[in-house]
Amino acid sequence: MVQRIDQDLRRFRKIIRGIVKKELKKYMTTGELLGKKGKDVVSIPIQQIEIPTFKYETRKLGGVGQGDGEGGTPIGSGEGEEGVGGAGNIPGQHILEVDISIDELAQIMGEELELPNVHPKNKHSIVTEKDRYSTISRTGPETLRHFRRTFREALKRQIASGTYNIHNPIVVPVKEDKRYRSWRVVKQPETNAVIIYIMDVSGSMGDEQKQIVRIESFWIDTWLKHQYQGIETKYVIHDAAASIVDEHTFFHTRESGGTRISSAYDLCAKLIEEEYSPVDWNIYVFHFSDGDNWGGGDTQTCIEIMQERLFPHVNLFCYGQVASPYGSGAFINDLKQAFPETENLILSGISGREEIYKSIKEFLGKGR
To answer: Tens digits of per-residue pLDDT, 146-173?
Structure first.
């Protein structure tokens, strides 16, 4: 019986994985997962799936047939106000929220987009020691008792001894059934990586453009954190001037002012020089803008900073140009002309949410 339960669970997880993979493009463009992200899991809304689950309750709340009423009284036909609408004959959609780990979501994303694994540009690594709860013990504190393993052992014992009654399926663990989470110290090499996000917040970048950046950044984060054990994230915003900000400020700053992209590239280069030595860090830069840069030679200044202070040190420099009704869109063409064959520069035009999928594949498809 226990083996059948495990088989059913694996089959269910396989079905869920297939549905998520099939609907991945929709998830990657709507942005609905952003508000459902926990520390290690994402809640995925899936329609038309229902699964029975055990509910464990220690309080005595009564059961079927223990409430008020006489024998034979119909259930569900109590008195009350009549509904506004009549009865219908069309089934509703049942939406189940399934928790999927960020790591598994990244694997699905990598398979669907055919993304190669990242190859760090340096072999320098730091060995760290971590306590990992990866084993099960017969002894331990009650706070670490593994309920599912304990229940399984008790169920196996009762089935083997013939005391399990399918008509009264009560499973009572004894001391020998109890299982506890246990840990061991593991040494693992960590290749450090830093992601530097840069976003244009000038007057021509509206809410929709920033939402596209937010959605794409979520999926880029998901993939790179799957590839690296140690990773840091920095956020830079710019209009005519640039500044380092936190994540909330990055995504919620209201647009204003003109645009001088070189201010952001200069600040990014200083950040790398002062805090993230390329000897110890794999560096990824993602810049999003509508391509409307101030004149007066600023684009040439950007090109010089990229060539001399950024490209020699970064694994990847990705520029995503988000279409805006107010931006000129000239910057991406200037970069194409200036760097026709630079291997660690990737350019992507993003005309709307439907192109987020394509843009991520362009950015991460080389495995750098």
So the answer is: 888 899 999 999 888 888 888 888 888 9
pLDDT tens digits, residue range 78-89?
554 454 555 555
d(C-alpha 283, C-alpha 274), whole Å: 13
Instruction: Give Cβ neighbours of residue 41 (< 8 Å, ≥ 6 apart).
Output: 99, 100, 101, 102
Domain boundaries, the chain: 1-52+95-114, 128-188, 191-364
pLDDT level of residue 94 (50, 70, 90 thresholds) = very low
CA distance 83 to 63: 29
Q: What is the DSSP letter of 175?
A: G
Token code pair at residue 364: 């991460």
Against a cut of 0.85, is the pTM above it? no
Q: What is the CATH number of domain 191-364?
A: 3.40.50.410
Give the span between the Cα atoms of 364 and 190, in whole angstroms. Answer: 21
Which one-letter amino acid corresponds to residue 219?
W
